[in-house]
Design goal:
Distance between the termini: 55 Å
Number of helices: 16
Radius of gyration: 26 Å
Largest sheet: none
Shape: flat
Helix content: 55-70%
Order of helices and strands: HHHHHHHHHHHHHHHH
Number of strands: 0
Oligomer: single chain
């Protein structure tokens, strides 16, 4: 439970960082701009009023300390003027996804962050369902769902269906009704939690469209995410159906296809990343750029963060194959696998490519290598950031990401050495999504600024000279 507490603290840190970035935009957007020349930035008066009204949404976060990332002292009034002109020019050229005012921006942002948190809990619940071997307890599926059994006869009917499945015949022979009810309720809760997300997404989405809160670009993006969410239910049943089929040999335990499990988990990660990224784009359309040098430093970090994010994602997918093959129950030693660094039977399947996805030894070895690569790459990113001029918010985020990577590696190693207890294994899966969340926030924070922003910062830099 202490590890789960640490993981929750990491997610609280993520919320703090997001709030700090909002506070930065608020602090700079509220500074006076009377000393600016409109011709200097080639912006007409009505556009400026529009931009300021859009950025006023950050006034909603009044409980956050102001100027948290601002300079502690200002050397002269000239520096104040330059900082003011810089923050105003940085607001130029933004493409906002919510244009109906600060109230709409806040409402859409809260809704999207709530949906992303819902997906996060759905992923964790799915992991617990798999770890408790509850996923095959329901032997049929309806797109709209159905009421659970209530009477004794209804429960007996569901139990009889399960008794005909390969999992009961080979693994759970002799299971009583109370044990069956536990695994049934786990799977039922997972399915209904997913359907609940569909309503939590669709109803506010329709409301915001009717009110004209969101742009066409955002509407198209959210429609695509909703379609992926609807398809996720089909992918889930496609996965479960593979576990209801008779295994190839009598020595193999019934379980879902590792390929379908990986597809189901990857799809959930894609949906989560899409919603979370969109939420960030709604509430933080601007960039935390203090100077041109910091923007240039962010560009260098971006070139490193993108491949690191890809490595984090691939490591998570490799973990899905570990889960699908129950590979965590083998070679429960570290750093060696048993008595050897590399097992002898890593390529005993034909064709050879099959070993990378179905061979327990090679699947676990791949995940170990990917996990160490992830930790090393994030550590390298942190070392590189120490030598680059960056905004304090970006440096803080990179340090937090490194801490999360170390925690995730610790969770993974503990899960392996302790023979995959449910609590640790579910925390490890949640840690993978949390680490990916930090990487998403980092990439979003150092994304490429608009040409208008770069031009304005260049002018400010010349003025300082």
């Amino acid at each position: 439970m202490s590890r789960l507490g640490s993981l929750l603290c990491r997610r609280k840190t993520l919320t703090t960082i997001i709030s700090d970035l909002r506070s930065f935009s608020k602090a700079h957007s509220n500074e006076p701009s009377s000393l600016l020349s409109s011709s200097r930035f080639a912006a007409q008066a009505h556009c400026e009023r529009c931009l300021f009204s859009r950025f006023s949404s950050f006034q909603a976060f009044k409980s956050i300390p102001k100027n948290i990332f601002a300079q502690s002292t200002r050397k002269s009034s000239t520096a104040t003027i330059l900082n003011t002109s810089q923050s105003t020019s940085t607001n130029s050229g933004l493409k906002l996804l919510v244009t109906a005012g600060p109230k709409a921006q806040k409402s859409v942002g809260i809704w999207l962050f709530t949906c992303s948190a819902w997906v996060f809990t759905l992923v964790v619940l799915g992991g617990i369902t798999r770890l408790t071997r509850s996923g095959l307890s329901m032997t049929d599926w309806k797109f709209t769902g159905s009421l659970p059994p209530f009477s004794q006869s209804e429960w007996q009917n569901e139990f009889q269906k399960y008794q005909k499945s390969p999992e009961y015949q080979r693994v759970n022979k002799g299971m009583n009704m109370e044990e069956f009810k536990f695994i049934y309720w786990m799977e039922y809760a997972h399915r209904m939690w997913g359907r609940g997300l569909g309503f939590a997404f669709a109803i506010p989405f329709g409301y915001f469209i009717s009110k004209g809160y969101i742009t066409r670009q955002l509407a198209v993006r959210l429609s695509a995410l909703f379609g992926l969410g609807a398809g996720q239910g089909l992918i889930g049943w496609w996965m479960v159906k593979s576990g209801l089929e008779e295994p190839e040999t009598e020595w193999v335990q019934p379980r879902v296809s590792p390929y379908r499990l990986a597809a189901h988990l990857t799809s959930a990660f894609v949906i989560y990343c899409g919603i979370f990224w969109t939420a960030l784009s709604v509430v933080m359309p601007g960039l935390p750029a203090g100077s041109l040098h910091q923007v240039q430093g962010a560009s260098r970090i971006r070139r490193l963060a993108l491949p690191v994010s890809l490595i984090v994602g691939l490591t998570a997918v490799s973990g899905a194959f570990v889960a699908g093959n129950d590979a965590g129950h083998a070679y429960n030693t570290f750093p060696k696998m048993g008595d050897k660094w590399i097992p002898d039977d890593i390529f005993h399947m034909e064709p050879m490519i099959k070993n990378f996805f179905e061979n327990t030894a090679l699947v676990q070895l791949n995940h170990r290598i990917m996990a160490m690569t992830t930790l090393a790459s994030i550590g390298g990113l942190w070392l590189a950031a120490r030598r680059i001029e960056l905004h304090p918010a970006v440096k803080s985020l990179i340090g937090t990401t490194l801490g999360m990577a170390m925690l995730q590696a610790t969770l993974g190693l503990s899960t392996l050495l302790m023979y995959v207890p449910t609590s640790l294994a579910s925390a490890h899966q949640a840690g993978a999504l949390t680490l990916l969340t930090f990487m998403l926030l980092l990439v979003h924070t150092v994304r490429k600024p608009s040409p208008a922003v770069l031009k304005a910062l260049a002018e400010v830099s010349k003025s300082k000279c």
